[in-house]
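Quick question: what would this complex look like in 3D?
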Amino acid sequence: MRYDIVLSGVGGQGVLSMAGLIGRAAVASGLIAKQSEVHGMAQRGGAVQAHLRLSDVPIESDLIPRGGADLILSLEPVEALRYLPWLSPTGTLVTSANAFVNIPDYPPTERILDRVRALPHAIVVEAERIAEESGDLLAVNTVMVGAASHLLPLDPVSLEDAVKSTFARKGERTLAANLTAFAAGRKAAS
Amino acid sequence: MAQRILLGDEAVGLGAIHAGVSSAYAYPGTPSTEILEFVIDHAERHGAPHAAWCANEKTAYEEALGTCFAGRRALVCMKHVGLNVAADPFMNSALVAIHGGLVVAVADDPGMHSSQNEQDTRWFADFAHVPCFEPASQQEAYDMTREAYEVSERFAVPVVMRLVTRLSHSRTKVELGEPREPNAIRKAPVAATWVLLPGNARKQWKELLARQGAIEACMAESKWNTLHLNPSRRDLGVITTGVARNYFRENLDDLGWTPSHLHIGAYPIPVEKIRELAAHCEKILVLEDGYPYVERLMRGVLPGTTTILGRTSGELPPTGELDPEVVRTALGLPTRPSVSLEGLILPNRPPQLCQGCPHGHAYSAIKEALAGYPQTMVTADIGCYTLGALPPYSAIESCVCMGASIGMAKGAAEAGFAPVVAVIGDGTFLHSGIAPLIDAAAANANMTVMILDNQATAMTGVQDPLVPSSRLHDIVLGTGVDPEHVIIVDAHPRKVHENAERLRKEFDHAGLSVVIAVRECKVAAKKRSRLAEAVV
């Protein structure tokens, strides 16, 4: 079994925390995980991506080959489309519907979302609204992990456990909001 | 056996800790920063080893060397261009008789994700005549670092650990060994081997060269250099170094057969193994993440019988990072099908200063103050503030190397240009800005230095400054700048206009001025308040 994920978004949105949640669940499930990250200058408000590879046999490359990703999981629609050359023809793109506009030439959001919806396998999630309804605007990452949980080769319980272990030390309210966000994200993509 | 999930950088840090290092020193620089961050975190939990950020890579290297002089093991870490700053102690430490192991962990940045060049540290190790390890995985980063200390003490030389961005910043599980105890203190037994007066240096240099045969034999036979010949095919052989092996193996299923393969993880290069591969294959493809180092050594200048393919012959691009796709193309495989981007042009999203960053307010003031002059020049330096070269600020005009802003401004001023402004951050100023400021003060050069004091080395993840803001002023005065032209301003958004007026006065002063623009980095402020809360 091998499952390759390109995670994307804008620097500061929490691409790495999203990768961390899935990575922890995979390792706890006995899988091998390799997670390639972007640090330093490239991080500041710019396009950010991480490659997360899950496998039950040793993984060679830290980078996913083009055309090899089973999933693009994105916190931002333009950043989701940016990595299409990595998506396998049978792969799925899961993105938040919410545009992050910090550049002057950002295209009309609807045009971008139409383009996403026209893909053979795509799921668009109203992540900010769902996070807010769950009680924590910052839980957007957890909503997106919930939305991707149908596709990941992981028991959703292992993902929920990763949410628990990650947010347990951040107080009861944050933990409860993230568990709600995970379930709501999962429901939104079902 | 214990296991941990580690970044490549962290694996080097833990490898050094488990090899019994007593001290670790570094100046932060992407992609190397996380090595020392890991050691500092470990030291805070366990009380050892000693781990500290330093003013620059040269001081870090010399401090590590002092630990070795006392017979204990030391680690010094930096990014590739940091080794240029530390080149003096690095080159000379190859000649002293190191008896407490020294590992120099250098993270290269092929593709220049966060750097101004993509120089390859393997050339530097070669230049200094010291061994070098190049891990292909996080596990190898851990294991090789431990072995590097043994090699260092066995041959009495510093040993280089060469990393690349992709390994530095990728995490996976690593199997850990038993920690080794640190060395006892034992001063260098023969002082003369550390006193590089010409008479001693000549002797030490000869001895270093005499040891090369043994070093080459040890590294060539290393388990990290592996040769597999495919008896049924002679048309193509492949040499990989470091992480290139991963990209090669990634494509083997699609290639459908396994070419004869030499992997190199330990240098100097294994000459006999390369000859053995060449005797078996008509063509050899060389895959390296970095400069074509092995490729150039193999080519030499005289015609050979083996065809060598690589970066210099066009099978691989001459610049940039390797990845599975680049290697796939070099192996003659077509691109795999993917989802089409056809007709879709996406806007670029370059990195930018954070919302409300004090550097932005400082740049607004500089731009306002410079408006109206027939010609202006703003030299700058390396840090978050280098992003001021991009829109919407477009406020700075140079970024060459740490500290260059001040020296270049002096040269331009002395060539007759005015007004000239040098922009430098507090971390960069302490790293390499003081010496050129002494030059500028001694000459009273007609220029203005603007120190953007955000009280952090922010770009690399917010390390605390070695000197608090309050003492920067004293340092500047100590270099001999006229106190009447050393000014402190607050880089507050509401003070842009007021600061611009103040700056304009200094631009018009026919001599050296230093303006320190103070305001804490917003990310640093957030991090510090979080830490303060955690303490409460």
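Answer marked as accepted. Residues 198-220 of chain B form the longest helix (23 residues).
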